[in-house]
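// run 5 | inverse folding | seed 20
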């Protein structure tokens, strides 16, 4: 999805956030990443031709997704997935991840259906549709959650391109795996395709971004901070294709002081649905949308030191209510808006969500430009 923009020659920017496996509820950590990306997208759109690319289709081929689907069909085939909650589906995902991974042969029919027909298991189809509802209530741009968006390269094309760049080590002819080989750059060898043909998340990202990146001046990779090693490799590969590539790590949100992967649980009572219920269905939409961005972007910040706190979220909603009462109109808003946004860039084209959002609450700022809030936050 490409944002509308004033007609002028500007740089082309690709935002490529990490995707969330559609097998569980959205947690505070997921919401933080989504809200950061949304603010960056909407704040950068007036300054550049910005594309927000997020394709669940590309990453359905990973073992955790295909394996979950195979597990459901083998053990829970008759469940009415269209009527289950995302929490109920998430509980099934926890059980799947607690057991042994399925053999490669069991996943091949699923991979074929994804690649050939864009097939999605009813459980994940249900989760993605529930997420669309959360996106709507939070005012998040939907980049095509339920659309079929296959990657530009097949696995073979991706491996050939990687080898041509001098960054691939293909050992399949001798029964081995495929590696991303950046050892001469001081980075460790990283397996991306197993000997039996299963791609990991990084292989899927390469299939998606290798053909896309050359068309852009700047590529921004937004990702979970714990994936830093893989994203350093991805940055190195994409830099070879011409664009400036920036990594934006976003820390997870601890729950009760503990950071846990969603596959281990611990998200019960802290899902997007629970959060929206806690906010209240009668909350003003503008207050809700601005308040959650103030909390997840400005209050929590880029790190992961602070646990999720409902009381601080409510304070952010109160602050949003006060900020909305302090808005002012500045007439034709484009020049003023662009100047305001440009102040929150550094040596790159994209706008820093944390710097921009934190500036809204500065004491030296007596009023807030309504055009800024409408464009970026509401």
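// decoded
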């Amino acid at each position: 999805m490409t944002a509308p923009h004033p007609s002028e020659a500007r740089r082309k920017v690709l935002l490529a956030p990490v995707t969330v496996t559609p097998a569980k509820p959205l947690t505070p950590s997921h919401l933080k990443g989504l809200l950061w990306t949304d603010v960056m997208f909407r704040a950068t759109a007036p300054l550049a031709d910005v594309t927000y690319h997020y394709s669940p289709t590309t990453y359905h081929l990973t073992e955790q997704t295909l394996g979950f689907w195979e597990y459901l069909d083998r053990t829970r085939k008759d469940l009415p997935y269209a009527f289950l909650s995302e929490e109920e589906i998430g509980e099934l995902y926890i059980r799947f991840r607690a057991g042994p991974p399925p053999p490669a042969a069991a996943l091949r029919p699923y991979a074929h259906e994804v690649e050939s027909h864009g097939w999605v298991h009813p459980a994940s189809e249900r989760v993605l549709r529930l997420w669309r509802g959360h996106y709507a209530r939070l005012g998040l741009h939907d980049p095509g959650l339920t659309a079929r968006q296959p990657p530009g390269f097949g696995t073979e094309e991706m491996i050939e391109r990687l080898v041509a760049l001098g960054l691939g080590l293909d050992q399949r002819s001798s029964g081995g795996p495929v590696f991303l080989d950046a050892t001469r750059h001081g980075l460790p060898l990283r397996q991306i395709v197993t000997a039996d043909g299963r791609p990991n998340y990084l292989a899927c990202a390469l299939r998606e971004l290798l053909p896309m990146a050359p068309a852009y001046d700047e590529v921004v990779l937004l990702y979970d901070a714990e994936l830093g090693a893989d994203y350093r490799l991805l940055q190195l590969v994409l830099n070879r294709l011409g664009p400036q590539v920036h990594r934006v790590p976003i820390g997870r949100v601890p729950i009760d002081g503990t950071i846990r992967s969603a596959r281990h649980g611990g998200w019960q009572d802290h899902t997007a649905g629970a959060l929206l219920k806690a906010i209240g269905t009668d909350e003003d939409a503008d207050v809700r949308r601005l308040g959650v961005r103030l909390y997840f972007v400005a209050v929590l910040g880029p790190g992961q030191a602070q646990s999720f706190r409902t009381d601080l979220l409510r304070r952010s909603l109160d602050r949003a209510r006060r900020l909305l009462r302090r808005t002012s109109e500045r007439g034709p808003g484009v020049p003023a808006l662009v100047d305001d946004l440009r102040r929150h860039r550094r040596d790159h084209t994209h706008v820093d969500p944390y710097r921009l959002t934190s500036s809204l609450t500065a004491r030296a700022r007596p009023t807030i430009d309504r055009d800024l809030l409408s464009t970026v936050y509401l």
